[in-house]
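Hi support team,

I'm opening this ticket because the web form for multi-chain structure prediction keeps timing out on my end. I have pasted the exact lines I submitted so you can reproduce it. The total is 718 residues across two entries, so I didn't expect it to be a heavy job. Is there a limit I'm missing, or should I split the entries? Thanks in advance, R.K.
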Amino acid sequence: MSSTAAGLAQVGLLIAALAVVYRPFGDYVARVYTGTKHMKVERAIYRTARIDPDSEQRWGTYALAVLGFSFVGVAFLYLLQRFQSLLPFDFDRGSVTPGMAFNTAVSFVTNTNWQSYVPETVLGHTVQMVGLTVQNFVSAAVGLAVAVALVRGFVRDRTDRLGNFWVDMTRGVIRILLPVAFVFAIVLVATGVVMSLKSGVSVDGQEVATAPVASQEAIKELGTNGGGVLNANSAHPFENPNSWSNLIEIFLLLVIPVSLTRTFGTLVGNRKQGYVLLSVMGVLWALMLTVIWWAEANGIRPLEGKELRFGIPGSALFANSTTDTSTGAVNAMHDSFTGLGGGGAMLNILFGEMTPGGVGTGLYSILVMAVIAMFLAGLMVGRTPEYLGKKLGKREVTAAAVSILAMPTVLLIGAGIAAILPGTQAALNNPGEHGLSEILYAYASAANNNGSAFAGITVTNDWFQASLGVCMALGRFVPIIAVLCLAGSLAAQKKVPETAGTLPTTGPLFATLLAGAIVLVAALTFVPALALGPIAEALL
Amino acid sequence: MTVVNNFLKQASAGLRVLLVLTVITGILYPAAVWTVSRIPGLHANAEAVDTTLVGVDREGDQWFHTRPSAATLPASGGSNKGERNADYDAVIAERRTTIAQREGVSEDQVPPDAVTASASGLDPHISPAYAELQVPRVARETGLSEQEVRQLVSASTGGGFTETVNVTELNRSLHTAR
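Hello R.K., no limit was hit. The queue was backed up. Here is the completed structure from your submission:
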């Protein structure tokens, strides 16, 4: 099989697998969040936590619950790392330094999974399992909960209640993430992924670190988290041993964000509303895949930083999917990609993680962009815009704008300061415009909660640990608060009936508007910065 | 003040939920996966003892060589060098010269995977072209015939979508054959 044919076969298999599960899985997720019954284990959780699962929250309380839960998550994960030397399975790797522990705690709680540490020498199995794996589950469930709350804002009529965060989050973990992750952890084990509690094995006389990989690998992809159990992430043969495990992992990181468009259509009572979002996501995903694949196939040294068993198509497919979702796992080193290929991966992140985006975050981000697109359309015809039967007034559009602008603001400020700090030069692994790309990519990845990197950059000094940590937190929670505020104000409205003047949001016109808004916002915000980095490199 | 109070109330509920979910997803879940992975026949080698999944280069001309590695063992990792990095061009050129001399061929016969570092630094695979390039030297140094060595190479050749040669496996069968 030629490389191109092999690549097309992988893309075909991936799309076929997603198509098979799209309807049943998307509908299942919808039932999870509309059902009124609680499972036994869920009741036990609510009882232990002293939560009334049948009470509902206003948007402000829902937001405070997200913040409160994330705050204790950061504190718990920070302390686990600081006291690692007291925990079992630490292999004398010692306690994690304060800056690194802070950065890592924020990183995993915000679903970013940016890694400033080298797992094999810094973290033992207890922190990986009891700390990181747990956040892989719950941070993804938080994203799902916020997305569902926003959808309820569109669906509900004249209410101040958005649902119960604890119920939404718990159901996401217990009914969606846990069963799917368990099944696929076993599948990954069967493909050869390692599951060992030892610290390492000797291979032909040299020590290579091992870990309980399979359990964390499954949820790392499924929850669009992306934090590698081992330093080379999904490029490590213990995490991703062959083309089949590779394809399964790509499937896992796409399956929830893609299927959520079906969930959305089902919940709003018009499946076409979901298909139109899926079409926009799919077109941008396919377009960027073509760019990255072509660029990598025509590079100067295409195999640098790639694993031979994946080849160029398998690496491009993974790179495109991990940056289109907010996963950030890598099976090849993006830093060694071509100017255009690496720039394509960066542009995927800069689209704001909605093609299809992360678990839950992708859906709420594209819905926010849909609000912006309808607002722009409303400006053109001089009419108050509506979306899904709700008027988009000043409050709604302001909330949407805050949500969209938070990411570029913290990204450009962070990267701008980093670029002029005297210590930064020494942190870079490549000279010239590629060095600037390393800085830009780091802040893009943090502010969008992606977590992949142009990994040559050394981000262990206090400035990077602190500023990237702050970027991750603001990039996560400012949009979440704005989205929940938007949801609250939508839910309070009365539904307006469709009229002849309503712009239909199920057709190609709306799809074009939405795709245009995604590309335009990113282009207007980032072209100047990109011109100095990847664009300059690609044109040289 | 009510916002602060409400936040503290939510955070304390959050702590209780987090602790319960930590038991379920942080202890029971990995323990269950670990247990199932021990079912005979499901995974040949979950502990990765004598694994052929990873490759580390063996010193000596009697072995097949892996791709260059940028890893600092026991950790994994790539070079992260960009394609316009002139310093790294020099490194690659040097590798090419060394390999060409080692195998007694001209530099343009050295395949690209032989001079570029993998992403993990533990890539066990090389291209069939790089394996073929190494056959005469390995045959000479081990005393096996080129024919025998080629048979071993072909036994270690496989892959799903791309054809690759597993060097770790190949070197072990070479060791047995001698």
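A quick check on our side: Chain B touches chain A through 83 residues (CB under 8 Å). Let us know if the file doesn't open in your viewer.
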